[in-house]
Amino acid sequence: MAASWAGVACLSLLALVIGDPCLIISEINADNPRLDTTEFVELYHTGGQRASLDGYTLVFYNGNGNVAYKVLDLKGHSTDDRGFFLVGSVDMLPKPAILLPPNTVQNGPDAIVLYHTSASRYGEKMDVTSLGMVDAVVYMTRRTGGAEFLAETLTPGEPAFVEDETALEGDESIERCLLSEDRWGFHVSSPSPGQRNNCTPPAAPATVPVINELKLGAGQVDGFVELTEAPAAGPLVLVVLDGRTDRVSVSVDVNTSRNGLTSVSIDKNFMKGDESGAVAVYGGRASDFPAGSQLSQIQPLDAFVFAGAGNKPSANLTETLIPGREPYQLSNSLREGGYYLSRCGVATWARDPGVFWEAPQTPAKVNQCPWPKICPHSNVTPGGTDSPSHLPPWGNSDFLINELNTDTPGAAEDGEYIELWHPSGRRVSLQGVWILLFSAHNNRPYREISLSGHFTTSKGYFLLGSDRLVPAPSLRLPPNTIQNGPDAVALYRSPYGPPSAAQRGIPTVGLLDAVVYRQRGSDKEAQELSKALTPGQLPLLEDPEVLAGDEALSRCRGLYPYDLSAFSVAPTTPLRENSCPRPPPAPFGVVISEVASAHWTTHNQQRAFVELHGPPMTDLRGLVLSVFDQERSGTVIALPLTGSVDQDGFYIVGNVTAADQTFPEGSVFPARGAVVLCYDLFSVCRAGSALTNSSLRDVLVFSENQQLLFSLSAARGRHVLPAARSVEDGPISLSRCSCCEVRSPSSWTSSSPTPRGTNLCPSAAFSSHIDLCLGPLSSDWQEPLSDCSGPIQGRKVAEVADYLERRCHCGISALYLQGANFSCVSGGLRVRGDIRALSDHQKALIIQTSRVDPSSSRGDACSAPTTDRYTSTDRAHRSSAPAARTGSRWRHIFLQEEAPSGLLHHGAE
């Protein structure tokens, strides 16, 4: 009997880790036919290899009382060589690593939770807790129910999974499978202890064919599309569309007389893997979709939209064929023979490229899907404390519309709600706050609601909605109160009465936030509401086809008011943290290229900006530019990037001419701080306190603040500071001069600003000669011989550059010493060759600063360290040239007298 999918439940997924393996609960069999003698819990390590379970604890909770009835410390155990670990009954096969008496695992309503923290924290009879939780499964049967409290505590926003004991003949288990993209779920299938789960996509209905497998040719071989059988669907046509023009490339009638899977070949000139396009299945015939015709507005039965490397399909094509979904992004390297894609996600809905994975071609056979290496984590830190609420410094921030559900399944419309949130994350009074519900038919409010006398929850949430909504709203509305669209919800602060009483038309005075939304095809009807409440933005579409069941418009990408780009269609989460979709893949090769602050000089052309550089036309969505001020905790600017790198590879943010984005109004770019290119949830990037290596795509620290250096710098606390003396009478910036060392201060130098142009970097055209011997600062410091034999490593080069910069204060960094040779001579470090400069002005500063009294020459050897301070042969220069600081690791030993300038001399050797 086929697996039942009636009870699919999506597991809460608040963080995604790809490539970093983790331990998950992969399968549970809690209820066997007759005697419960083959119960088991299966854990799986997504690395697919042996892994230690030290530090993990498995706890079984009884839904009757919500207390623990069994606690297993997994210390000393490990998974098998394939990543599996079994806890189960003594009679089951394969034999579990930890044996349980028969009938130990209760049938439900119950929960099984995996923790990673001290095992001493957990014991039998303890109350349910989410502290230290790594993974959890809450389950019940159709007979029992009653797992609401466990679900609310352990998997907030997701109902308990219902194990249907009638789904299969014989035994069944609860198995974890990937639904689509990064969304996990559970389903009932035949038990598979110690083996890969039976994650077979559900059988398609007889009336709706679905795309099962594709081959995108490389322009050298034909492509093909495999469809499932749909004998009751009538005549079908397969249409291939060009992603650049939205026109039909070719259409082919589908032979529906065959049983099972049907394969359709496509000419090699279409469906190329290096271009964007789409495949759609319609009811009808090929003559209805002639080649060259425009994209049809008829809704397809199924569709697949794909994006080649650097070649996106149009928004119209994507929205029409796969509303609310993202195109399948093909990898950058086009494989010989093309791409093979198989339907592997077990989601029951159609028109979703997220259910396809790259897999071997299996025409007319069951798809061979790989086991996904994606980790579903809870919203609890494994260390054992609740995750920090990533809240921005809220200051003068006011209430925001956080989630909106205007259209619920069924005719009753009794699940509608509006959720507000205060960025303080605290209990706050709503005195003087109003919500207005607008109709686009007359651009007037059809309901004005005063919130005076109400307060938010302790976490800053406030909920108003239908009287049957769960959890119960603080302010109840009759069913079907909130209209489906085109309409608007607006939030005002109006302490002296309703906003409409003081203003004609659509009120804007006192407006705190607004959302204009629509139904499909109705955006033009809301133009006046959009113009007044959210100018320059299209209304949002709460698309009921995006998710199975109910959905909401959730704030996911920003905390700025009236910003509709901050919202996504997502699962409903009233009074809980929004369940936001995973951001798009991080743009490849984008780095911080140039940074300037308006505070670095007093020149009238000094402006604040950040220049990014990357592959031309790269989409920057998913990246957030965060700016830190050393004088404040957290970020002072957090800006989600919305555009694309231009054709020359540049993207400018800031207060300069022709910037792609400007800094938020009222924000101040600091004199000392840091700039971070972040890829994570906006709330994480904005908080700046929980950034990981995967979050930090690039960083530049221009501060000596130790806390910033510790948390952001990847180069052992090193930083870069602007040197005003490096530029003669002009504005200054920090410029990247090394293409490939991301997050390295050695890649940077001070220079004149060149936004949207080639950075000014040290050049051999302005070089001077250097011949310098350096020794340890003190006699008790012994340099390991291995550090001073063969090529000198970059760390020492940077230390020498620091030594020179402490004397010059003119912007010298390791970049300037690329023309110098480093060697170890008689216990000292010999530096000999060319030192570069940005200009004649900087070159003169380097030569002037270097004039010291040379010691006597000993050929190629370095003499013993001198004890005197550095002095200058020019008495007038002594007061202006900074002496070497005692903090420098190096001390000058010997200088070969090759030129009267001393340390450096100008010209060719």
What is the mean predicted local confidence, pLDDT? 79
Strand-pairing-aware structural class: mainly beta
Q: Could you tell me the strand content as a percent range?
A: 25-35%
Number of helical segments with 4 or more residues = 9
Give the uncertain stretches in residue-range form. Answer: 1-19, 378-396, 777-787, 852-860, 863-909
Please bin the fraction of helical residues.
under 10%
Principal-axes shape call: globular
- What is the number of beta strands? 49
Describe the structure.
By secondary structure, the chain is mainly β. About 5% of the residues lie in helices and about 30% in strands. The chain contains nine helices and 49 strands. A seven-stranded mixed β-sheet has the order 1-13-12-3-4-7-8, with no helix packed on it. A hairpin with a 2-residue loop joins β12 and β13 (about 185-190). The longest helix has 15 residues, at about 795-810. The N and C termini lie far apart (about 85 Å). About 45% of the residues are buried. Residues about 1-20, about 380-395, about 775-785, about 850-860 and about 865-909 have low confidence and may be disordered.
